[in-house]
## 1
Amino acid sequence: MSEHGGNVVETGLQLGIDPELLLDFSANINPLGLPERVRSLIVSHLDIIMHYPDVEYRHLHQALACANQCEYDQTIAGNGETELIYALVRTLAPRRAMLLVPGFAEYRRALQQQGCHIIDYALNEREGFQVDSALLDAIRTHRPDCLFIATPNNPTGLMPDAGLLDQLASLCEALHIALIVDEAFIDFLPQGSTLAPRLADSRYLYLLRSLTKFFAIPGLRLGYLLSGNTDTIRQLKRTREPWSVNAFSALVGQHLLSDEDYISRSHAYIARQRDYLWQAMTRFSSLAVWKPEANFIFFRCLRQDVNLKTALLGHHILIRHCENYPGLDSTWYRIAVRTEAENNRFIEALTHVLQDDGDGLFPDFLQSER
């Protein structure tokens, strides 16, 4: 099983402590927590647990289509985005696929299960882990059947240039390459997706979305896929296991994307806390920190004598080690943006762990932010 963030139960067992005592910076979940609308819907509809969901999820698919200004037959909901990654790969059955590394582990696992040959396209520190036009040249050279790209990228939190994404979509359409764009964190960007308007005229573009991260419902497991290729969507619906989305997820999903108050408050709060956390972390001379566009921060510890994950667990803080991402080693980490109080606690713990950093002014900076 691939390592993911949010595994507080296993970590608590390893440390011999109650998992509730851990402050989890490893899972990229909206710090504002569960929308009140979700809580109210579940409490007021408890009786639906006694009935099977609509196997076609008609109301859910209609709500997703309406929110994304696309057609009903261009969307399919799933038990989290991950279910749809595997289902799409099984349906498309690519023989050659290109993956950007570092990247989300489940793309590779899904492709390997189908015996697909994988071409790695390495993003590197020298180029700031950013995608550029060289990717277009690599696609023309290798001619894969499909390409996975995350916007924003996980774990770097970086967003490719909108113009380059448009060129990428046009190239893949011309070469009949399935362009699978993971937009799991796109809801954290107020401007949203620049590729969504292309859906109506594309047969090779697939947009994967997650509702669990932005709306803080990872336990409910809900994601969806958008594509102008209605034949593929139809085949996915026809061959999927029945009732993969539970009744509560199907109900809640009908209302999430119309909760404009929660969405606007989240954008404002996360932007403020993300900027504070990023600025605070850049004050440490032993950290190289990438400026993020999503709700998490990617960074490197330049001190070889410090394992930050282990050291911060001593303060009951769990962060995401990135050494299991292809192309990264044990010096790379990722943390989520959390509440103001929790972010302050993280910076205090980090200050203690890196107290020999030589940055004597940092504690004064932290104090001034309170």
## 2
Amino acid sequence: MSQKRSGYLSWDEYFMAVALLSGLRSKDPSTQVGACVANPQNKIVGVGYNGFPWGCSDDELPWAREGNYLDTKYPYVCHAELNAVLNSITRDLRDCRLYVALFPCNECTKVIIQSGIREIIYMSDKYSATESVQASKLMLEKSNTHYRRFIPERDSILLDFNRQ
């Protein structure tokens, strides 16, 4: 009798990999963030990445990080978390988990909480000192929405399109 294969992806690794893969769709030259929403049955119900709203050309709006506010990407870009919620196949995201590369900003955190997502699994908290992330953490604690850092069990995952 055969044994099951070892070394397969854990659920956390799988969903974080989907989030990271989704981030590769972003056209942002400086920050590519992806997000994946998984329900309690471990089914993917939404994915998203950071980019401009539908109908807004990636070639006509600015991608700059600095300068006059209206000449930067910030007033125009939809974050990965927002897109994952908006792109979800269901409006009932109660008790779902959100996997995301960066800890969510305060605006995305409002959407996450309002949607019913109960846990955030993130990779990087490099903006932890910002007021936006501090506000996020306060709202998450007040709403009893859990968050934890993703700790990978492996360094990388290779996708080979030539492997059959």
## 3
Amino acid sequence: MIIGREKEHRELLSLLEKEEPQFCAVYGRRRVGKTYLIRETFNYQFCFQHTGVAKGTLHQQLTAFRNSLMAAGMKCRIPQTWIEAFELLKQLIINAPAGKKVLFIDELPWMDTPKGNLIGALESFWNGWATARREKDIVLIVCGSATSWISKKLLKDKGGLRGRLTNRIKLMPFTLRECELFTKGTNLALGRKDILELYMILGGIPYYWSFLKKGLSVAQNIDQLFFSENGQLRDEFEALYATLFKRPDNYLKVIKCLSEGKKSGMTREDILAASNLSDGGTFSTILEELEECGFIRRFTSADTSEINALYQLIDNYTLFYYFCINKNAFSDEHYWQNTNTSPSHNTWKGHAFERACLQHISQIKIALGISGVQTNVCSWFTRGTTLHRGAQIDLILQRADGFTDICEIKHSTNTYTIDHDYAKELQNKLDAYQSLSKDKRTLHLVMITTNGIAHNNYYNMVQKEITMDELFA
């Protein structure tokens, strides 16, 4: 059963209707449901399907490819090169029954071993043979979790595969609405407060949600998934980065720095200093690939240059790992239940709710009634000086209709109350942005909270409030 993914499902099915050969790349974060979507969409009916071997040698990759050919009904020996492997695939296709021939190659990046020339062989197969067939009957779907590899080798390739993709589908994590549909489809009795808390931990990763058990509270589920001795996701963190990056150590140094740095983010120079990594092209690649894979986000102030960009940890699960799992070190199997009201738990909730909101910009725009208005989504910050206080605004919506929404995001178990001190902080942000930014639009203060805000003496400074329920649109 496919939950959500309506657009992607239709796009995949449309490949069968095209009169020309189709070459589609499906990519996205590990565990986001790429393989499941493709298999379910085509009802597990493929002329040929194959999955690369994680960290496999060239010989292991070619052996596995031969095994997949045999599973499709072809008797053959182990090919010695990828050119030879694709020649065997050609023979399988030629001998297949008439009609569309759907080829599904999963985890293609894993197959690209040093000196294996996978891309050259794939290019020869597609450009020199598949597109030249009179029958025009091939639908090739390749898939991979190493988003940066897909981007470099296929989407932005400067060689023979440049412009050859007919479709590209980046599969994003579930939204809160899709997670709610998932819980209903699997008969999990969870309210929106529960779903939000789980989302702040699991993100919108269907694989993680599939382990939730009926009859358990959120805290019980989290304990059995992450903190129990046999928890299904107890060792997920190491596997997550190790399968995406060939040398994950330096990537993890950057991630660790961002988890320990300021909530507002760190500059490139800050990360270099904290991680002891060397500046240069390799470091730039690490940042680019972490951003491409959805673990971090890079943003500049609304009116400053790219050189002053800040980097933030954005992946929900990774944030949870450093704030909670890593601190517990598996010493307490009931950690989540025992720390549910602790200060550290509340600090994590504040961070995690902000990240969840940043992942639901479309829903926020719908709640504001500006879904059809051209909008520049950005952040803004200014460092404190002798003349003014510093200020950080995580979400700004600069609208084409002459207004700018200054969004403040607050998690609270109950109705959130703006007190005297926080009202002064809010006014400082508005004043700083008004006087120091280049934005001359009319400012609207928007409060995004879990359960709304109290209507006290400071309520009138708020132009619009958005609650948790509106993020489920």
